[in-house]
Known about the structure:
This protein is mainly α. The chain contains 20 helices and no strands.
Amino acid sequence: MDVLKQFLGTTAFANLEWANVMMIVIGCIFISLAIIKHYEPLLLLPIGFGCVVGNIPAIPSMLVDVYDESSVLWYLYQGVERGIYPPLIFLGIGAMTDFSTMLSNPRLVLLGAAAQVGIFLTILGALCLGFTPAEAGSIGIIGGADGPTAIFLSSQLAPHLLGAIAIAAYSYMALVPVIQPPIMKLLTTREERLIRMKPPRVVSKRERIIFPIVAFLICALIVPGSLTLIAMLFFGNLMKESGVTERLAEAARVPLIDCVTILLGLTVGASTAADRFITTESMAIFGLGALAFAVSTASGVLFAKFMNLFLKDKINPLLGAAGVSAVPDSARVVQHVGQEEDPNNFLLMHAMAPNVAGVIGSAVAAGVLWSYLV
Length: 374
């Protein structure tokens, strides 16, 4: 019996609390949403499983947690905590991204910029709730709907909030098909949703090669704080467009980004140990994150309507919702909502312009915040 009691004391059941059970259930919900609803499965499935992993309590002498220095998970988590994984993901995104649509219709870039308004309004809300400026900046970036950017900025400004911010950012990215459509329909009329866009012009290979070099120089010289993310994004795109490093571009956009996504998702999920995650701060971050995402979506749509006051060739206001940098999900949502009104209205390639502009915009916004709040 003594041996049995000793064995039972080493099991997770001996130290399992209701908060751990709740986080395990949340992790299972994430996994279910990924498998059943296909909500951002490449992110939600590893994050959900990580939540389960991170809430299995171990005896104190065993180093298995992401917060236990020298444990295996701790080493893997350093890629998150030190901001290593996000630039690698940006490298892969750059190698996958085609900026042709944005270059063919540069005015759509403004929609990507307008959608970043939610970031700065949320910062004000966070300050009003008592968060420090650095913490508020890290929370506000959730409005850009860009998980890697949110993780990178949080690792520099508010590492103690990293887990909550990362989970909030990726959760809202995954819920783009749920959150955005009601806002888009509320702010637009049926006539506006029926607007058809003119076919984009053909962009030459020379333009596609020159763009990442020139865009990087402009962004980095104006906002040096964005250099790490922007450099990796445009370097990946240059490898793709140059035509002479296709093997490197393929490596960046498939095996590299897949491996990093697995490690990032699993370790971010494992960082949600109940004793650190279930706090009033975390709940406030989730609320502010939802507000940031909603405001960013609304800002893009409303700015498109504002632009139409001065344009002869009208823009479909739905495109403004793609200004958040949830690539390519927000562009797909625009396509879906537009085709609900007119099945023959194809907005996807046009929506990719503000979508990729939003990626650049969120990285630049993070650089601005880092420069001022560090």
